[in-house]
Amino acid sequence: MKVYGGESSAGASSKPERIKVGIAEYDVTKNGAVLTTSGLGSCIGVAIHDETAPVSGLVHVMLPSAEEMDDDNPAKFADTGVETLIDELEAAGGDRANMIAKIAGGSDMLDFSESGSGIGQRNVEQVKATLDTYDIPLVGEDVGGDHGRSLRFEGTSGDLIVKSANKDAQTL
């Protein structure tokens, strides 16, 4: 888990830095880097952007709640991962009052339960509850279904590009 920031050394015509966020990881950028993650099945990618700072961050969470497991990696869980990302965005100069969130993932690709409340849906519910606790509006989502997703989060604009196996890429 790294936090990136500072002034970009890239010129106006250069492509922004690209940072890969792995499973149970997060990253924050202050220099307009592009944050990417892939392999979102039941996992959720949570992208938070503060246009006024400008800072952006992305976390790739796997499970709904840290209370369910004994693990010291906060990025692994929807509740502590979102909380940690918000804290890191504030430490990088962001203001919670100006933050917006977009999410993608939470599919039930491998869920065979008949209850309809598989891990993907529980992840979505926990992410939304945690964002609500911090008063961060959810302004875009592509969740559920039975397909995987990959994300590209544009740190400068706050655009979240979602690529799915079964449909065209969309921008949230």
TrEMBL record:
<protein>
    <recommendedName>
        <fullName>Probable chemoreceptor glutamine deamidase CheD</fullName>
        <ecNumber>3.5.1.44</ecNumber>
    </recommendedName>
</protein>
<dbReference type="InterPro" id="IPR011324">
    <property type="entry name" value="Cytotoxic_necrot_fac-like_cat"/>
</dbReference>
<dbReference type="InterPro" id="IPR038592">
    <property type="entry name" value="CheD-like_sf"/>
</dbReference>
<keyword id="KW-0145">Chemotaxis</keyword>
<dbReference type="GO" id="GO:0050568">
    <property type="term" value="F:protein-glutamine glutaminase activity"/>
</dbReference>
<comment type="similarity">
    <text>Belongs to the CheD family.</text>
</comment>
<keyword id="KW-0378">Hydrolase</keyword>
<comment type="function">
    <text>Probably deamidates glutamine residues to glutamate on methyl-accepting chemotaxis receptors (MCPs), playing an important role in chemotaxis.</text>
</comment>
<dbReference type="InterPro" id="IPR005659">
    <property type="entry name" value="Chemorcpt_Glu_NH3ase_CheD"/>
</dbReference>
<dbReference type="GO" id="GO:0006935">
    <property type="term" value="P:chemotaxis"/>
</dbReference>
<dbReference type="Pfam" id="PF03975">
    <property type="entry name" value="CheD"/>
</dbReference>
